[in-house]
Amino acid sequence: MLVRSASAAPVQRSRSLLLLRLENAETLGEYLGKAAMGHLVVRLSMTLSRAIRPDDPVEIIAPGLFAVTLNERDELDAIGVGRRLLEQAQTPIAVAGRDILPVLTGVLVHAEGASLPDLADMTENARQRFEGLADDALGRVTLFPYDPALTRGGQGASVAEAAAAGEIQAYFQPQVCCNTGAVRGFELLARWNHPQRGLLLPGAFFGRMSAEDHGALTLAILDQGLRALKTWDRAGWDVPRVALNISNCELANPDFAAGILWELDRHDLRPERLTIEVLETVGPITSNAEARRNLLALARAGCNIDLDDFGTGYASLDAIRQFGVQRIKIDRSFVTGCDIDPGQQRMILAILALAERLGIAALAEGVETREEYSFLAQMGCDEVQGHAIARPMPLEDVASYLARHAESGRTIGRLLG
Known about the structure:
By secondary structure, this protein is of the alpha/beta class. It contains 14 helices and 17 strands. It has an 8-stranded mixed beta barrel, surrounded by 5 helices. Strands 2-3-1-6-7 form a 5-stranded mixed β-sheet, with helices on both faces. Strands 4-5 form a two-stranded antiparallel ribbon. β8 (168-177) and β9 (183-194) form a beta hairpin. The longest helix is centred in the middle third of the chain and has 25 residues, at 211-235. It is globular, with a radius of gyration of 24 Å.
């Protein structure tokens, strides 16, 4: 029998990686809110995808950061495509009743030869090139050759390596009861004390994290949060719990719930001292069998379950019932301007009514002004969190915050008495 040998796939000789950064993404996020900002990012991604051929994929690698892979193009062709994409992306987009004019800056890294670098290395190259861009590069695409020396530059170590080196630090943001003013807990937020770049917020490193990084980050932040609870208990502070955000990839780990419960047992803390925050925007939370098992195991053990970013995702009412969600966190996109915007007020009142009928608590996050705080308290919101209460703080500042908060409560009590 004659066997024909399969023809070898053609060897790719060139590859370009275009990294497009939405300027002022953080400011836009604060202005628009999470839901509208997510809509803007998706619209931009669709605009980019429609403007190129199907085998040149577009990926959102972080909020406001897009990676476009251009295959088998020479430098002139690649830079031409990059400039065309930038021009098409920088057109007005209607988002949440507002016309937004995106401003993007691009870095194009180009490689040629028989052995091409992988996309991860090219993406890292592009990230490092962003660090050294001149001010006049804003709103333009700049072409660079691929430089292997930059692959491990900039951020350097992975998040897992940073956690092992003790560079990951928990910051604490209080969650306050609207009825009593008491601190009901602290949300744990991650910061990276980078040896070269200083204190990094999550947006600077979340987009490139692997499943191993997520696991290491969670363990580092959880350990610091549980140690903080023990410290506050010994000092006599009444802080019922800490809250920890969990990624979808961690929930899909079969050993996740067992690991969390082991950490609680190691610190001699009851499960109800820990709140697990699950993002409503990561998927449907019921879509993965391991995620369901983990959430059920944690809930049955006594951990509190929060549904974060409520109103922006896909969770069903049955999921709230199934996993014993004790609290929903109202996304800041509904909170911003709720004291003056009738549309925001109607949405807030509807969510609070739903929570009351379901017998669960509601926490409003992203409360930026005292006026928003007052409106939410008057409407019956259970708890609030945001800069109007306190900004995230390192552990060494928490004790003084608790002392000031307790004294202000006593002062109000004396005035009312």
